Every structure is written in structure tokens, then in C-alpha cells.
Amino acid sequence: MIRMIKSMPLYLLAIIILIVMGLPFVIMLLTSFKGQMEFMTSPWSIPESFSLDNYLLLVELEFFGYFVNSLIVAVVSVVIVIIISAMASYPLARLKFRLNRPIFILFMVGMMIPIHTTLVPIFILTNKMGLYDSLIGLIGPYIAFALPISVVIFTQFMRDIPKELEESAKIDGCSHLRLFWNIIFPLLTPAVATVAIYNFIHIWNEFIFALVLTNSSQNATLPIGLREFYGEFSVNIPGIMAALTLGSLPLLLVYFIAQEKIVTGLAAGSVKG
């Protein structure tokens, strides 16, 4: 009983945080079922009738095409980032060589570079490579920007793995490549979850590069597709809320599945510097 009383402030704080963080999503969901006129007259009330007109409008505006493009770009980018950054982190964490520390510092410096300062050179490079207005033209920069923080997270995780596992495998004649894929990589599940979710959320919501590097609706991603709801003199707020509701579902689903591993990964990755 005493322990319960002592925990009451924590439960109260958790409820307050839940309300503050969850209320915007609830408002967004309720607004998506309203008409434009109902939203203008009573924006904070519960919908008089839960209409699906806004969700039917998404079908007419090819919303699911934008959704699929975002899904392809995010999934492909994240998978490639995990493979490259995990393999790049292995020598930094497990092998001793002269440039180990300087290379790791370069990756950390890469985290400090504002990505939008590279917008013009990347646009020029994409044009010269013939990748403008293509999903591949988006995937390349997204991978490059995600590598620094991903390498840092994987490196910190690998440094905490006992070296006895590696030494026993080497005695049995295991090569570095086999050692990495069969022993080290399976132990990186929390780091993989952290890198995957962190980068997926960033890529899913990215707008500026998607706006500059694509020009057609066939290759536009979800943030670009939301502009379809902006007219010359008006904005379809309920329609935007419907699109945001559907667009946030993948993020919420993946995060709730892997939230414990994400917290563990971020905490472990910040232990050493």
C-alpha cells in the first residue's frame, strides 16, 4: 500500500504526458471524419456524423500511390543503411588499426552537418547522373545522411559484445565475414531496431529533398502528396487530417512493436563516446 502511494505521482505524471501527447492525435482523427463546413463552425467538437468522404477523396487523389512510393523509399533505404553501417562498424569496434579513431570521429562529424546545406550539390549531381525524378534519386541521399548516426550506434553496441565469443570462433577457423554474420550480427537486434525505426521515421517525413529531386506525381512521396489538399484560396483541413491519420499508422505500428528495443538501443549507444 505504501509503495502504491509513493508511485502515485509517477502514475499521475504518466497520465498527464499521455494526455498531452495523445490529444493531438485524437483531434486529428476526429477532424478527419468532419466536412469542411463542420470543421470551420466547430473545429474542437466531436463529429456530428462520422463521414468517410475525406478517406474516399484520398483514393481520388492517388494518395495510396504516394503512400507506396514513401514505403518503397523508406524500406529500401533502411535495409541498405542497416547492412552498410553494420558492416562498416565491425572493423571500427572489433579491429585495431591506426586510423580507427580518426575514421570514427569523421562519422561523428558527419552527424553535425546540416543536410539541407547539401541540397544544391545533390540536385546537380542527381541531374548529371540521370536520376532526377526517380525513387533511386531519393534513396541515395537518404542512405548517405543516415549512415553517420547508424555507424555510431552500431559501433557502440559492438564494443559491448564480449570478445570471448569472437576469440573462440577464430580458434575454430571462422573468417571475419562469417564471424560477423553468424555471431556478431544476430546479437545486434536492439541496435538494428534503433537504426531502423529512427531512420524510417526521418525518411518517411522528409519533405525538402523529395520536393527538389522529384517532379511528377508518379514518383512523389507522401509529404509531397499532401499538397494536393491545398487550393489557391483554401485548404482542406479535414482531408489533410485523414491523410495524416493513414500516413502515421505505419510509424505507430512499427514503433509500438519495437519500442523497448529502441529505448534500449538509444541508451546503450550513448554510454560511451
UniProtKB/TrEMBL annotation:
<dbReference type="Pfam" id="PF00528">
    <property type="entry name" value="BPD_transp_1"/>
</dbReference>
<keyword id="KW-0813">Transport</keyword>
<keyword id="KW-0472">Membrane</keyword>
<feature type="transmembrane region" description="Helical">
    <location>
        <begin position="179"/>
        <end position="201"/>
    </location>
</feature>
<keyword id="KW-1003">Cell membrane</keyword>
<feature type="transmembrane region" description="Helical">
    <location>
        <begin position="63"/>
        <end position="90"/>
    </location>
</feature>
<feature type="domain" description="ABC transmembrane type-1">
    <location>
        <begin position="67"/>
        <end position="258"/>
    </location>
</feature>
<dbReference type="InterPro" id="IPR000515">
    <property type="entry name" value="MetI-like"/>
</dbReference>
<feature type="transmembrane region" description="Helical">
    <location>
        <begin position="136"/>
        <end position="158"/>
    </location>
</feature>
<keyword id="KW-1133">Transmembrane helix</keyword>
<keyword id="KW-0812">Transmembrane</keyword>
<dbReference type="GO" id="GO:0055085">
    <property type="term" value="P:transmembrane transport"/>
</dbReference>
<protein>
    <submittedName>
        <fullName>Raffinose/stachyose/melibiose transport system permease protein</fullName>
    </submittedName>
</protein>
<comment type="similarity">
    <text>Belongs to the binding-protein-dependent transport system permease family.</text>
</comment>
<feature type="transmembrane region" description="Helical">
    <location>
        <begin position="237"/>
        <end position="258"/>
    </location>
</feature>
<feature type="transmembrane region" description="Helical">
    <location>
        <begin position="102"/>
        <end position="124"/>
    </location>
</feature>
<feature type="transmembrane region" description="Helical">
    <location>
        <begin position="12"/>
        <end position="33"/>
    </location>
</feature>
<dbReference type="InterPro" id="IPR035906">
    <property type="entry name" value="MetI-like_sf"/>
</dbReference>
<dbReference type="GO" id="GO:0005886">
    <property type="term" value="C:plasma membrane"/>
</dbReference>
